[in-house]
């Protein structure tokens, strides 16, 4: 052993081959924190001064190679001034440059995940061997930045600029077959043979079968393209990436610009270009927002893990109520390995639920994500039932019947008599109080909310709602089941609408007020989509279901009459009256017709304006700024109220609930991060401009106090 630290060890065998082993003490994964980087620098320096080395292998003692930079440490660099940040990046470059300049061939033995900085270490080696099960990639654009340790320079030279742009701008983790096809790795082998294969590559160099010097010379030199070739590559890439990334996410386009410039430069100059572009992105608001989201996501997963730690796993579940939602829940459970009974009182509903689940399994097969055999096995794990015959054997039940308090209470009381005393009973209600639903139950301690979002297979969030009498054990088991289903659970306390719908309906209320003032819903939709929402409020109401929104609105108005009750009919009331329920019956704000793939396509029909005319009580001229403010202020204030009233325990959980539950624009980082970025005083001043619109537009007293003291919801 010529070097032994807490994260890096170096040993040289009798054949003169050194193995640099990454093994960060006290961690389940390797990551590039300051300790690891410092020790890697020392190790490489020792290798530079070791005589008669025949080769160097970079390997991992853990199941992963390197997951990337320690995000908490790495993002603290972003707060440095430009010069100090450039120095930090240059220090990392120096390590990887030293690796690429060692006096012998180098091989990365990629046994598991190699992402971000881990991938950039891989790229600094001459050759790469990858385990069949490993994944590699440069996901930095998902954090609002691009690779800053040489990735934008070395990857294009290795796999071509077009492929590199796709890898970097997409930020996806690449499987071994794709990595080999693109030329990112030299060999793919079983995980157990990665180190042996790496050694074999070094032997091939020593035997004169491979020329690592020629490879280095090629990868260091500027890439040569004719002006037309270069234009065709990058114009094509810009068109595809620009359409996908949009104006709110500058990192992918910045990466393309850096790659385009860097391929024509020598290695040193290209790395300098990378540093300059990286600094600009790192200092921008989008990187700050997306990093905050990443850290918040880690936080809520950690919280969920603590809840689930001592829970007994759900071995068999049941869902009451088939149809689209029940079928979606059944699919999600079965696809992740938990068998589930799907019960309904109507055969046609069961058929619809089974059809929905089957469609989702077939979709996975078509995309190559599942084999036919596994899809069949998944479908077999869904047992349709018209009776409670097997319910005594289930560990958890999800009630997903119609959103009506009387019907839900009746069904819940009935099923409670059919399940074991320690089984957990949950409701998929979107707005009705869990405490209220528990009133007629004999074991309210075993009851909580488990609110899925539609479509279940796509929406990552599950709200787990604690009623007044809900036990910690019930919450823990429900959280554990949500995690087992591949979902992100957020635990919230009981109130009408819980977290997500309580916040969403003031947003809809802002929209309804503008409709009463003669606003064009298409203009509002386009404005909010341009602002970063996946769909505007009218389209979202159609997707949610106008009938669902109508009933939920009544619950919210009853729960918060001072600000959510409205006088007279609004647009949702009018459409409900006309039985225009949205996508589910082909007409709402928009009309719907199937596209070539059979999915509903929205179409504007002039008749809607005449149908909505009775709810228009005045005419106002609204700018884009007015529309954004009038939509966002009620949502942000209500989110704050949820934190102040302890409906949700932290700013991170609130913001992630909105991101995962209703598609809040990620580049803004969540409602509370958005307030921090804007500044609470600036927000309060903006809200005061619209105070005539009522209590929905009124900041809380605590918000005004925090604004006065220049406080934030997240620590700086």
Keywords:
716 residues, alpha/beta, 2-enoyl-CoA Hydratase, Chain A, domain 1, Rossmann fold, seven-stranded mixed beta sheet, 20 strands
Compute the number of strand runs. Answer: 20
Low confidence ranges: none
Q: Any idea of the CATH topology of the largest domain?
A: 2-enoyl-CoA Hydratase, Chain A, domain 1
Strand order across the largest sheet: 13-12-11-14-15-16-17-18
Please report the number of helical segments.
31
Main β-sheet: number of strands, strand sense, barrel status?
8 strands, mixed
CATH homology superfamily name of the largest domain: 2-enoyl-CoA Hydratase, Chain A, domain 1
Assembly level = single chain
Computed Rg: 28 Å
Which of globular, elongated, flat, extended, rod-shaped describes the shape?
A: globular
Helix content: 40-55%
The CATH class assignment of the largest domain is Alpha Beta
> Beta-strand level of the residues, as a percent range?
5-15%
Q: How many individual domains?
A: 3
Cα end-to-end separation: 43 Å
């Amino acid at each position: 052993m010529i070097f032994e630290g807490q994260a890096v060890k170096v040993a040289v065998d009798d054949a003169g081959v050194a193995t640099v082993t990454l093994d960060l003490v006290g961690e389940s994964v390797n990551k590039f924190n300051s300790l690891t980087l410092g020790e890697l620098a020392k190790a490489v320096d020792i290798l530079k001064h070791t005589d008669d080395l025949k080769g160097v292998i970079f390997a991992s003692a853990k199941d992963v190679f390197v997951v990337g930079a320690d995000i908490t440490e790495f993002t603290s660099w972003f707060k440095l001034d430009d010069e100090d940040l450039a120095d930090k990046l240059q220090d990392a470059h120096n390590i990887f440059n030293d690796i690429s300049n060692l006096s012998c061939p180098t091989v990365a033995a990629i046994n598991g995940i190699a992402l971000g900085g881990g991938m950039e270490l891989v790229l600094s080696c001459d050759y790469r061997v990858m385990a069949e099960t490993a994944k590699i990639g440069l996901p930095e654009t998902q954090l609002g930045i691009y690779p800053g340790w040489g990735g934008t320079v070395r990857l294009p030279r290795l796999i071509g600029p077009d492929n590199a742009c796709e890898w970097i701008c997409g930020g996806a983790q690449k499987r071994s077959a794709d990595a080999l096809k693109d030329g990112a790795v030299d060999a793919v082998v079983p995980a157990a043979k990665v180190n042996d294969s790496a050694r074999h590559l070094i032997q091939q160099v020593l035997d004169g079968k491979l020329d690592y010097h020629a490879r280095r010379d090629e990868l260091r030199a500027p890439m040569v393209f004719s002006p037309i070739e270069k234009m065709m590559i990058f114009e094509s890439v810009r068109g595809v990436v620009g359409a996908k990334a949009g104006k709110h996410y500058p990192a992918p386009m910045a990466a393309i610009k850096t790659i385009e410039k860097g391929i024509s430069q020598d290695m040193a100059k290209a790395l300098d270009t990378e540093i300059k572009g990286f600094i600009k992105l790192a200092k921008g608001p989008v990187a700050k927002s997306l990093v905050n989201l990443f850290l918040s996501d880690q936080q809520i997963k950690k919280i969920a893990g603590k809840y689930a730690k001592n829970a007994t796993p759900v071995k068999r579940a049941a869902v009451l109520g088939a149809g689209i939602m029940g079928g979606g829940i059944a699919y999600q459970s079965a696809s992740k390995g938990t068998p589930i009974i799907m019960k309904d009182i109507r055969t046609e509903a069961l058929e619809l639920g089974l059809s929905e689940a089957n469609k989702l399994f077939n979709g996975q097969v078509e995309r190559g994500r599942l084999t036919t055999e596994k899809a069949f096995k998944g479908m077999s794990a869904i047992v349709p039932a018209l009776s409670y015959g097997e319910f005594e054997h289930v560990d958890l039940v999800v009630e997903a019947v119609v959103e009506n308090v009387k019907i839900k209470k009746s069904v819940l009381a009935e099923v409670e008599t059919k399940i074991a005393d320690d089984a957990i009973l949950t409701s998929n209600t979107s707005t009705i109080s869990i405490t209220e639903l528990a009133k007629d139950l004999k074991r309210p301690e075993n009851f909580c909310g488990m609110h899925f979002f539609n479509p279940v297979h796509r929406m990552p969030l599950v709200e787990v709602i604690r009623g007044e009498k809900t036990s910690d054990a019930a919450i823990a088991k429900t959280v554990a089941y949500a995690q087992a289903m591949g979902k992100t659970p957020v635990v919230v306390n009981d109130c009408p609408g819980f977290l997500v719908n309580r916040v969403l309906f003031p947003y809809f209320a802002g929209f309804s007020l503008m409709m009463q003032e003669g606003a064009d819903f298409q203009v509002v939709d386009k404005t909010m989509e341009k602002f970063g929402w996946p769909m505007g409020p009218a389209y979202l109401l159609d997707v949610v279901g106008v009938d669902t929104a109508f009933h939920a609105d009544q619950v919210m108005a009853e729960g918060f009459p001072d600000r959510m009750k409205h006088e007279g009919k609004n647009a949702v009331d009018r459409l409900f009256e006309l039985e225009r329920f949205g996508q589910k019956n082909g007409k709402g704000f928009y009309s719907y017709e199937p596209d070539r793939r059979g999915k509903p396509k929205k179409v504007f029909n002039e008749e809607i304006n005449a149908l909505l005319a009775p709810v228009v009580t005045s005419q106002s001229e609204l700018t884009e700024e007015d529309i954004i403010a009038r939509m966002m202020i009620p949502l942000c204030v209500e989110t704050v109220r949820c934190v102040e009233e302890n409906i949700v325990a932290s700013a991170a959980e609130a913001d992630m609930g909105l991101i995962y539950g209703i598609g809040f624009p990620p580049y803004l980082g969540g409602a509370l991060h958005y307030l921090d970025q804007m500044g609470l005083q600036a927000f309060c001043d903006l809200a005061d401009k619209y105070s005539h619109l009522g209590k929905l537009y009124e900041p809380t007293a605590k918000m005004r106090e925090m604004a006065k003291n220049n406080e934030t919801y997240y620590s700086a």
